[in-house]
Amino acid sequence: MTGRQPVPQPGQAIFSGDCTAEFGAGAAGPVFSEFSAAHPFGNGAFGTRVRLYAGLRRIDIRTQLVNNEKFVRYQALFPTLIQGGRTVHEIPFGAVERPAAVEFPAQHWADYGDGKQGVAVLNRGLPGNLTTDGTMMLSLARATAIVAYGFGGGYEPGMSSDSGFELGRQLTFDYALVPHAGDWRQAGVYRDGMEFNHPLLARTAGTHSGELPKRWGLLDITPQNVVVSALKPGADGTAVLRVYEAAGQPTAAKLRLSATVEAAEEVNLLEDPGNNLAVVDNGLQFDLRAFEIKTIKLRLKHLARTHPRGPVSSRLGFASRRDAPTWPGLSETGIRVLERRGHVIPRAGETSCPWNPSRDCWPVAGRAAMPWATLRVGTWSRSRECSMPPSRHGPP
Questions:
Q1: Disulfide check for 37: which of 21, 24, 124, 174 has CB 3.0–4.6 Å away?
Q2: pLDDT tens-digit series, residues 106-153
Q3: Over the stretch 174-204, which tens digit does the pLDDT of each residue have?
Q4: In a 10 Å sphere around its CB, with 0-12 CB exposed, 13-18 middle and 19+ buried, how is residue 339 labelled?
Q5: Sign of the torsion formed by the C-alpha atoms of 294, 281, 251 and 121
Q6: What is the pTM of this model?
Q7: Residue ranges of the domains in the chain?
Q8: How far apart, in whole angstroms, are the C-alpha atoms of residue 389 and residue 327?
Q9: In Å, how far are 121, 242, 256, 286 from 221, measured between CA atoms?
Q10: What is the fold of 231-299?
Q11: Are 16-146+161-197 and 231-299 the same fold in CATH?
């Protein structure tokens, strides 16, 4: 939006607090405590849950709406007592100050403060943010349709865009508040935004033996304003690490890995060769300008891994077995992903599916038939059956 938006006033908008005569419900426990409420809202329905976790300063909010009206917008409002503050929004690999009362996209967070104290609104896929007269506003949804658009580019006469009204559908929104002392840099709001958008995934496991210590990390990087944005396998068997400076301050960064680093090289975003970096005790040091992005290519010592179906040579857990068969339409990167997830490419002559031994999914009348559902490369998968001719290495 380009126009200035005032704070909505009674009579100009419908507020959720005006639509209920019922009390909400609370719950308390050792991990979190929460309060929830639900009631009609206009011609639709509204429900929200506010949750506090032990040990976290973040206040998590989940709101659910059922919209039955056209051309309306839903916003969450957070009035503050801060006067004359500054509005700062996160953008990709940085942050920028924005004018008041105008909605702009904020990637993971929007902060409003006076340098002594402030509040950050974290969003998960809700970029529309603005602050007017000390009130922070987050756009949750717009029920709209195309009302003025030139024909062409796939939009032709007779086509409808009424699905944009989202009528009768329950919509769920996740966002959070982070009150803090100091400004957004001192508070490290950028880390709260990343943690909220990339929650820790936990897996329950039974008691078992293992070689790892109770506490272990692959990568340690300091100071806290240096953020890791990517760690992936390179095309030449290396590991590619991308970091950036998130607070807008020149920084001397230190990096250490729990792996043997044979060589390190600073490359550009296309991973073209660049300058070699000195490696000392599996660690690196380098300088970053304000909001600078750096990509580092690491050559790590081979690690031997043992698998029930045979040994797999790996670098940083990404398999690169040279005797693996090739499949038409499946790149070497795809094979690495399969093996990294514990899927071992069967050798010539094997006739059972390694991750489902009860299923025969290999040679069928001289051809290899398998469900695409087993070929999960990245996040893309298909459930249809397909047939592929065997490669020159034998049946896949």
A1: 24
A2: 999 999 999 999 999 999 999 999 999 999 999 999 998 877 666 666
A3: 999 999 999 999 999 999 999 999 998 888 8
A4: buried
A5: positive
A6: 0.74
A7: 16-146+161-197, 231-299, 303-388
A8: 8
A9: 26, 12, 6, 11
A10: Immunoglobulin-like (2.60.40)
A11: no
